[in-house]
Amino acid sequence: MLRTTNAIDLSFTPSSTIDEDFQNRPRLRIVEPPPRGTPIFPGEAATQDMLERKNRRSDLIVLVQRFATEDFGWSFEHENTRLSHATMNAAIQFLSLLPMNQVEPKITPTGEGGLEVVWERSEVTAVVIEGWTLHAVKAAGTPQAEYIHDIPFTGNEVPPEILAAIPRLS
User: Fold this and answer.
1) What does pTM read for this prediction?
2) Residues facing residue 120 across a β-bridge
3) Is the pLDDT assigned to residue 76 strictly greater than 70?
4) What residues have CB less than 8 Å from 128, skipping those under 6 apart?
């Protein structure tokens, strides 16, 4: 049975040789990348930097999933701890909703089923995700520290008070 798409023949006929099979395949069409500045993310331009940032964001989401499915022990007190499933789902949604013009965060499990998301710029901002509840501190470790406690996260948008605390790219 011959299965084809518009561009590539996905079948292999055992009776033919590999050379014959290759020569009979439809030619691939090379597609040029979009012109500089072409938007591909809502409100964002398709630059190489933006695409790399999107890939790193995807890597963070994979890491969140690993924190929820694999045991990790970041201290002797919290051996074999995993993110709760609620925290995993909330963290994935939270990271997915962050605008691409934000400074890239680092993530670490809290050891109690939560996830800490940290941005290091001229000052440190941290968000702790515990299930569908967010806690944040802006200018952590300084006398100017601002604390935001018990913000419900619906998964539809990053709460404005949390988004305002996260540093943007210059």
Assistant:
1) 0.69
2) 124
3) no
4) 110, 114, 115, 116, 117, 134, 135, 136
